[in-house]
Design brief:
The complex is a heterotetramer of chains A (476), B (225), C (318) and D (665).
Chain B (H helix, E strand, L loop, with lengths): L10 H23 L3 H22 L5 H28 L12 H25 L8 H17 L3 H23 L4 H29 L13
Helix pairs in contact in B: 1-2, 1-5, 1-6, 2-3, 2-6, 3-6, 3-7, 4-5, 5-6, 6-7
Chain C lengths: L2 H34 L9 H11 L3 E3 L7 H16 L15 H21 L3 H32 L4 H10 L2 H4 L1 H17 L18 H4 L5 H26 L10 H27 L9 H24 L1
Chain D lengths: L2 H22 L3 H27 L5 E5 L6 E5 L2 H24 L7 H19 L3 H19 L8 H31 L4 H6 L4 H19 L7 H8 L2 H26 L5 H24 L3 H29 L1 H36 L10 H4 L1 H14 L6 H14 L7 H33 L6 H4 L6 H19 L1 H7 L17 E3 L4 E3 L1 H25 L3 E3 L18 H4 L1 H6 L1 H4 L1 E9 L7 E10 L2 H22 L6 H20 L1
Antiparallel strand pairs in D: 1-2, 3-4, 6-7
Helix pairs in contact in D: 1-2, 1-4, 2-3, 2-4, 3-4, 3-10, 3-13, 3-19, 4-5, 4-10, 5-6, 5-10, 6-8, 6-9, 8-10, 8-11, 9-10, 9-12, 10-12, 10-13, 11-12, 11-17, 12-13, 12-17, 13-15, 13-16, 13-19, 15-17, 15-19, 16-19, 19-20
The chains are: A mainly alpha (476), B mainly alpha (225), C mainly alpha (318), D mainly alpha (665).
């Protein structure tokens, strides 16, 4: 099994090196999604025959049900984001950075040693810095600068937390998560350590009040990059938060982390709901919707218990696929209409039916309409919230969800449905046909289809989720 | 993992320890006050060396890799990073620092307040760690908080880079004081990450200089809602 | 003979008697008004003579009128049904069709709808205006009628009019009780509004802006007008008969024998003529109320009914 | 596998067939037929599930989900069966109508698949056995109907706004239900309705759960003050869809309310009944008031739905109030609720289908631009007549029977012990009577202005009848109205398993026997009596006609001389003018008069324009300020993200300090 860990991490690095070596342009365009395919396959392999916690690379890495599921999610979303989007002018550096970004995320997922987790998360910031700036122009640079500075400072706070946690392990110091989870008790500094670690990772997970970099970075980055970042980088950082929460629940009891996450959840939902109401740029709209969904995940984590945690994990997969698909569609809309402003994009359904339909399908999935899976997970989190005694927080969250729903649906309907022309002109100034080849449009629709399959595909997902949840030590 | 016995501190190491932590805190406060980049870079170098000395003093039982680690720390944080910053500052002739967001007087008062916060937070940590150097943990935390303050108040791109490294020095110092330093592999990994971040930020500063003709970050505020 | 057949015959007699009596009742009211206003008056049988004239005249239908033929006949049949249901000559009813409060009111309102449709179908501004005002009045009348009769039904415990009447006959004290007094006054106001008498609507005016009933039948002519007039008179007689019986229930036939039915017919005709006379006399001294003061009148009568109901609870409860 | 399981399988199968037909069929014409027939199959299987559940089948179907500890379950209950059966029948009729009527976007691929999803959602909601399945089916219904409401977005400007209001209000109802039922499930320990029913929560937990869920159901049912989506969404949806929404989807809100009051929290305190009454009375009065002044036919019908929901809630409140003291009367009130549900479903479907046919034939929705359609569209006129009679609760229609049973329950509900009920009864009686009176005016106006006299516009003059399937559907629905009106006993016997024991009819009788209120009504006998009275009149009329023939005259009375143009006829707006004047404080009409004076002197008037608009006062005073506040919040909120990196760093730094100090404590 350990060999596949090396394949998952090593092969994308080789592909990155190869793309730097400037092979023919045709190959370079496909390297990123080949790398994602590799990660997806490894994830599927680990899922196929679950293996209990083998450690690799001198105990630094670890493969268990939870990491296998996360690797699978990273793979899926990466394939959708890189496969679905129009690769800009193919250049080696872009593909190399994308592959390294994938490696960093896989490392962060597989890491057992918290130090390695931190290094991997910091590596994701470094690799995506130039990807965000790739959009070019003053705004690209501004977004990149804010992304790197705010991201690194946030993660530095996490590093301070890890250091204090390490200090709290007392005379048998260790940073291995598996070991820390089994520790009977930790010194008093563990409280501060865990709090700072979660606060730091909350920056990378886009939870308020550390979310300020997210709208700028995700709206300036090219489609695949923002799809990957919004879809799964936030989720990988959130997985880190889940790991620290497991330690805290085990050592300090559930109450401590529950209040921290609940506050973060409500703040994120409030920020997202407020800024989505009169948002003018559709890429920023999607970024704020990511903050809203991260708020839902934080709420689910705060609630805890088997049902809520399983719902959080399933929500990560559903939201990742939907958001990656939507950012890819946003990229194509920007390419077709030339402007990111919602006011200038109207009547997509009439002027470019394939774009309009993709927007409506993706938004229906995002807002939690059936047949898409996010309805099931959001409902599970709300019901679990009431069952595990967090009635007030869940009710406030439900209210904020409604405001967010109203904001997002208002903007998307304004973009896709026709602004009434009197009389309805025969050919409403049809846009250039959607440049993306059929295969890429197919991938995006497949992503939304997969999200629709989630609630139905009970058989394989159920055991995976139960195993992952028991690894996280969630009591029913 | 090697279990570190409680260190019987020889008088020389205690002295070295005290001066190093003192230097760390002093340089952090001075950074608040200094305006020019060249001055700040110099202080950063001093702080790097102080951190290296601190890690040397705290790890006295003489395993060879600890000494190598301290040397690497001194080299990168003491020499390489300040040199890179100075070279970029000269090339982009961004030597002078514009007026910071908060004038130095209030900066000093804030630093004092942050130090008291660091001590409030640090004391339970100090009592909890069995190590003798535990008492100095609040100093590490103070350097972190002051580094954050400098970062939040500097307009200059290079100033923000320096402040980021100061924050990282603070965390390194806390690590050394509270837990006698992290395992070697992690320590090297972190060091490289910090170096890479600084390199990325320097490249971005160079591009901003080309694009915006000035390295004042507060002018970059087009991305708003 | 089975009692339902007997009841059927009694009801048939009731319908025929009331149909015959209706024009005479209207004749009497007009005659009394004429005399009080110092005119000679056209005699009590003038309405019958009008009907005979109309039956022989040729009906004219304007272009665009659709249900001109069917609606007058439908209106007449509904009025006939109303009188068949009301306990006028006899309290006997067909077993399956109780003269229940809501059934009677619905049949009454069905009549209102038909006459409103006649107005609308005429296709002129007056028909629409009359129909709109008539429907507004009947919309405001319905709460009063329901609440008033509900007040009367509380002491009896059942909502069919015949049981109410027979109960009132057996306990004369309940007739003069405050509950029944209030309810009767409310019911009388409602009946006056519904049948278009002063002060709500002036039956004898042709002034465009004030007439309600007349406006609807402006376009009708010949036998259509005949049907409509007869139907309205029968409704008037039926409702006045109901109020009269509620006030003085004696004389109404409880069983269906030739003697009792004869007395019943005489009693009902006598009572209705007296009541109509009183109303006519009072009308002489009344002026038509402005249309948008009618809701206040209706609200007043509703409050009377409301007080009757609460009073009945209090007296009933003690 | 018993009938219920077969029916559910048939239901799901026909849904997939319908969607496949919708997507697969090449031309709109073929798609209408294929998808229409498949949708009818869906309706039939839905009715089958309803009937199976109604006749005592209590099987439970389970479906696993990926989440541990959460399985979807469908549970056949009598109450659910009743509503599933009613919705199945209406789906069949509307699908049949849709075959002929659907055109443009309603006949598109998304149109028909959304129709299938909408139908499926409405069939699954009454059968759901636990909170999660219920809410998922609720959302399937929501997405289906939202897509259909938005289908005409290219043709009319108001559609997008209406669709947005609809989607947001439906989501509000979904979230209220998730909260309310979630609280109930939390206190009962499991999400299944059976568990909640056996161990219901008590005290203020039950109160909170009840209020939240009730407001959620009231939002879907369209009760005032959460009704504002109804008059916006119904007119914009295609007619056969708005018929389905009004006749059935709104009833899902009523099903939910009955689920709460009769099954989950059966013996709640009396203030619960007052809350239901508090929702019922304003809905009935305000709904019919707005309907009586509306001149757009479909908006009139939408507000009349609010009125009927109000009446149903009043009947439900009476049932709840009298349950402890007089169970007999409570059973009568429940019969009234079921009859009101069926009768409204019947006549509202007829009316909306007729409105659709008028829109199809004349292209007009505004009553003021119709007229004389009885000659040009006879079948539609008959349907409109029967529907209007039903809506005005006049004899020989379902409305009459339903309101009769409601009034019987009101009349006999007074009881010496319960002072509260006796005190409010006359007031409720007055409200029901006034509502019935105004309904009379509304539907006389609707029928009279639309079908009688002369056509007011060229479109109305050029009206043509709909296709065969439309006519058949309308006549079927109208037959339903008359059938329930003439032989209600058959219906009450069919739904007897739903009624409490005391109300179950013992003897078989065509008429309606209410043992609780010792009252019985046999509408067939009433009809026969009417016939007996009419026959002699018709013969005399015929005899007179033979002797004196009728003469056609060109011109009605036009004050002598002037040729009266059709526009001089009364219109719907002028018909409702007296009401607007009387109830102007409730309706708050906006009137303005613009006078253009001649240049030379202020006192001579060149032209004068008068316009009056009756706007939904609940929305203007209740919802508009909320929307303005939210937009202001959105604009002010944007300053939060003003682009300065120093503010972002400060917020992170602040969070760090707060956590440090917080952890200290």
């Amino acid at each position: 099994m350990a060999v596949f860990v090396w394949i998952a991490l090593g092969l994308p690095v080789v592909l990155a090196a190869w793309s730097l070596g400037a092979p023919r342009a045709g190959i370079v365009r496909h390297l990123p999604w080949i790398a994602s395919g590799v990660v997806l396959l490894c994830g599927l392999l680990f899922l196929a025959h679950p293996v209990e916690g083998t450690a690799a690379l001198a105990g630094m890495l670890r493969v268990d049900a939870f990491t296998a599921y996360l690797l699978f999610v990273v793979g899926c979303v990466a394939v959708v984001a890189t496969g679905g989007a129009l690769t800009p002018t193919p250049n080696g550096r872009f593909s190399a950075l994308m592959c390294l970004f994938l490696v960093a995320m896989s490392l962060a997922v597989l890491a057992d040693n918290l130090g390695v987790l931190w290094v991997a998360i910091e590596a994701t910031t470094i690799t995506t810095a130039f990807l965000v700036a790739h959009g070019g122009g003053r705004r690209g640079l501004e977004a990149a600068w804010k992304y790197v500075v705010l991201g690194s400072v946030g993660v530095a706070i996490a590093f301070l937390g890890i250091v204090l946690l390490y200090a709290a392990t007392g005379d048998t110091p260790s940073l291995s998560w598996a070991d820390l989870v089994t520790r009977p008790e930790l010194a008093q500094t563990a409280r501060i350590g865990l709090a700072l670690a979660v606060l730091g990772l909350a920056t990378k997970a886009g939870l308020a009040p550390m979310h300020s970099w997210l709208p700028d970075a995700h709206s300036q980055a090219p489609a695949q990059v923002s799809g990957l970042m919004s879809g799964v980088l936030l989720a990988v950082a959130f997985a880190g938060i889940l790991r620290f929460k497991t330690i805290s629940d085990h050592v300090l009891g559930a109450g401590f982390m529950r209040s921290l996450l609940a506050i973060a959840a409500l703040l994120s939902l409030a920020v997202a709901a407020t800024l989505v109401l009169t948002q003018r740029n559709y890429k920023r709209l999607l970024a704020y919707s990511s903050i809203e969904h991260m708020g839902i995940l934080a709420l689910g984590a705060a609630i805890g218990g088997q049902l809520a945690t399983a719902a959080v994990l399933l929500h990560i997969l559903g939201h990742g696929l939907t958001k990656a698909g939507l950012f890819v569609v946003a990229g194509r809309t920007l390419h077709a209409t030339g402007s990111p402003e919602i006011a200038e994009v109207h009547g997509l359904l009439a002027r470019s039916p394939s774009l309009g339909r993709s927007w409506l399908l993706g938004t229906a999935a995002l807002l939690g309409f059936p047949p898409f899976g996010l309805l099931l997970t959001e409902l599970a989190i709300i019901v679990a919230g009431y069952q595990r005694g967090m009635g007030v927080v869940t009710s406030v969250a439900v209210l904020l969800l409604l405001v967010g729903f109203a904001g997002i649906s208002r903007q998307i309907l304004a973009m896709t449905l026709t602004r009434h022309q009197e009389p309805p002109s025969a050919n409403p100034e049809v846009l250039a046909p959607d440049p993306a080849p059929a295969i890429q449009r197919g991938i995006v629709l497949a992503a939304f289809g997969a999200v629709a399959l989630i609630p139905v595909v009970a058989w394989p997902l159920a055991d995976v989720l139960t195993a992952a949840v028991t690894v996280l030590g969630a009591t029913p | 993992m090697t279990t570190i016995p409680s260190v019987t501190a020889s008088p020389l190491t205690i002295q070295l320890l005290a001066t190093a932590t003192g230097a760390l805190l002093l340089t952090a406060v001075l950074l608040l006050w200094r305006r020019s980049i060249t001055g700040a870079a110099g202080l950063l170098g001093v702080q790097g060396l102080a951190l290296a000395a601190l890690s040397l003093a705290a790890a006295t039982e003489g395993e060879p890799h600890l000494y190598a680690l301290a040397a690497l720390l001194a080299l990168i944080k003491g020499v390489v990073i300040p040199a890179l910053v100075l070279r970029t500052a000269r090339q982009l002739d961004a030597a002078t620092e514009g007026s910071p967001v908060v004038n130095p007087a209030t900066g000093m008062l804030l630093a004092a307040a942050l130090t008291t916060v660091a001590f409030l937070v640090g004391t339970p940590v100090a009592t909890a760690t069995a190590r003798s150097t535990g008492a100095a943990v609040p100093v590490g935390l103070a350097v972190v908080l002051i580094g954050f303050l400098v970062l939040a108040t500097r307009r200059e791109a290079l100033g923000q880079i320096i402040a980021f490294v100061v924050v990282d020095n603070g965390i390194g110092a806390t690590a050394v004081l509270a837990a006698g330093g992290l395992p070697a592999v992690i320590e090297v990994g972190v060091l490289f990450d910090v170096l890479l971040v600084v390199l990325v930020l320097l490249i971005l500063t160079r591009r901003i200089r080309l694009g915006v003709a000035v390295t004042d970050i507060s002018r970059l505020n087009e991305l708003r809602d | 003979m089975s009692d339902s057949l007997v009841a059927g015959l009694a009801i048939a007699l009731q319908v025929l008697a009331v149909t015959a009596a209706a024009p005479i009742v209207v004749g009497v009211t007009r005659q009394i008004r004429a005399r009080l206003e110092g005119r000679v008056g056209a005699g009590v049988l003038q309405p019958w003579r009008d009907l005979r004239k109309l039956a022989r005249k040729e009906p004219l239908t304007a272009e665009g009128v659709i249900l001109g033929r069917a609606l007058p006949v439908a209106l007449m049949s509904v009025s006939g049904l109303l009188v068949a249901l009301l306990p006028l000559v006899t309290t006997l009813t067909l077993p399956a069709v109780p003269d229940d409060l809501f059934v009677v009111v619905s049949v009454l309102l069905l009549g209102s709808v038909f006459i409103a449709l006649i107005g609308l179908d005429a296709g002129s501004a007056f028909g629409g205006m009359g129909s709109s005002r008539h429907m507004m009045v009947s919309a405001l009348v319905e709460p009063t009628v329901l609440v008033a009769v509900y007040a009367l039904s509380i002491p009896v415990g059942a909502s069919t009019l015949s049981t109410i009447l027979s109960a009132r006959m057996s306990t004369p004290a309940s007739i003069v009780s405050p509950v029944s007094a209030l309810a009767l006054v409310a019911l009388l106001i409602a009946v006056i509004a519904e049948t278009g008498r002063l002060p709500v609507d002036n039956p004898s005016t042709h002034l465009e802006l004030t007439m309600i009933h007349e406006a609807m039948v402006l376009e009708a002519s010949g036998r259509d007008l005949g049907w409509i007039e007869l139907a309205s008179w029968i409704r008037l007689t039926g409702l006045f008969g109901l109020v009269a019986n509620l006030a003085l229930p004696w004389g109404i036939a409880e069983q269906a024998t030739v003697g009792t039915l004869g007395i019943g017919v005489a009693a009902i005709i006598g009572k209705v003529v007296v009541l109509a006379g009183i109303v006519a006399a009072v009308e002489v001294f009344l002026a038509k109320v402005r249309l948008f003061r009618v809701p206040e009148l209706m609200a007043g009568s509703f409050v009377l009914g409301f007080l009757a109901v609460t009073a009945s609870y209090l007296t009933g409860a003690s | 596998m018993n009938v219920f399981q077969w029916a559910v399988i048939a239901l799901v199968l026909s849904f997939f067939v319908a969607t496949a037909a919708a997507v697969g069929a090449p031309t709109p014409r073929l798609r209408n037929i294929l998808a229409g027939v498949a949708a009818m199959a869906l309706g039939v299987s839905g009715t089958a599930t309803g009937v199976a559940a109604l006749t005592g089948d209590t099987t439970i179907l389970l479906l696993a989900t990926p989440l541990p500890g959460m399985t979807l379950s469908w549970h056949a209950t009598a109450l659910g069966g009743f509503f599933a059966a009613v919705s199945g029948v209406v789906v069949v009729i509307c699908a049949l109508y849709g075959i002929g009527y659907a055109h443009g976007p309603a006949a598109s691929r998304t149109g028909w698949s959304a129709f299938a999803a909408f139908g499926l959602g409405m069939q699954l909601v009454p059968l759901a056995g636990d909170v999660v399945t219920f809410l998922i089916a609720w959302e399937v219904m929501a997405i289906g109907s939202s897509v259909l409401v938005l289908s005409d977005h290219a043709h009319r400007p108001g559609v997008r706004k209406a669709g947005l209001w609809y989607a947001v209000m439906t989501h509000l109802s979904f979230l209220l239900l998730a909260a309310g039922l979630g609280i109930a499930a939390a206190s009962a320990g499991s999400t299944s309705f059976y568990a909640i029913a056996t161990t219901p929560p008590t005290g203020e937990v039950a109160a909170l759960a009840f209020v939240l869920a009730l407001v959620g159901f009231a939002t879907k049912a369209g009760a005032v003050p959460v009704h504002i989506w109804l008059p916006r969404a119904h007119p914009e949806a295609p007619s056969h869809v708005s018929a389905l929404m009004s006749a059935v989807m709104v009833k899902m809100g009523i099903y939910g309310a009955m689920l709460l009051t009769t099954r989950l929290f059966p013996n709640g305190p009396s203030w619960w009944a007052l809350l239901v009454l508090g929702l019922g009375i304003p809905s009935a009065l305000y709904g019919i008031l707005q309907a009586s002044v509306a001149s757009d036919l479909k908006r009139l019908l939408a507000y009349s739905t609010t009125e009927n929901v109000g009446l149903i809630l009043i009947a439900l409140a009476i049932a709840m109030l009298t349950r402890p003291t007089r169970p007999g009367i409570s059973a009568v009130a429940l019969i009234a609720v079921f009859l009101l549900v069926v009768s409204h479903a019947a006549f509202k479907t007829t009316l909306f289908l007729a409105a659709g046919s008028i829109l199809h034939g004349t292209g007009e929705r505004d009553l003021d631009r119709m007229g004389g359609l009885a000659v040009r569209m006879p079948v539609t006129a008959i349907a409109l007549a029967v529907g209007s009679l039903g809506a005005a609760a006049l004899p020989a229609t379902s409305g009459f029977v339903a309101e009769w049973s409601l009034l019987q329950s009101l009349i006999h509900a007074d009881s010496r012990t319960d002072r509260l009920t006796t005190a409010i009864l006359p007031f409720v009686m007055g409200v029901v009577a006034l509502t019935a009176g105004l309904a009379l005016l509304t539907f006389t106006k609707a029928f009279g202005i639309a079908t009688l006299a002369r056509p007011r516009t060229a479109n109305a003059a050029a009206a043509h009848e709909g296709s065969r399937s439309m006519r058949l559907a309308m006549l079927l629905a109208a037959a339903g109205v008359v059938a329930v009106g003439v032989i209600p006993g058959v219906l009450v016997r069919a739904i007897s398993p739903v009624l409490p024991e005391v109300a179950r009819p013992t003897a078989y009788s065509a008429g309606l026997v209410l043992p609780g209120a010792q009252a019985s009504l046999d509408p067939t006998a009433l009809a026969l009596l009417a016939l007996a009275v009419t026959l002699p009149l018709v013969t005399t009329g015929w005899l007179l006609a033979r002797r004196v023939p009728r003469q056609q005259v060109a011109m009605g009375w036009g004050c002598g001389g002037v040729r009266t143009s059709p526009r001089m006829q009364y219109t719907a707006t002028s018909y409702a003018e007296p009401l607007v004047r009387i109830f102007d404080d409730a309706l708050a009409p906006t009137r303005d008069v613009r006078v253009t004076h001649a240049e030379e002197s202020r006192f001579t008037v060149r032209a004068m324009a008068y316009s009056q608009r009756v706007v939904d006062v609940v929305e203007a005073r209740g919802y508009a300020p909320v929307v303005r506040a939210l937009t202001r919040l959105g604009d002010r909120g944007r300053s939060l993200q003003n682009g300065s990196i120093h503010r972002y760093l400060a917020s992170s730094f602040g969070a760090l300090l707060l956590v440090l100090l917080g952890v200290l404590g």
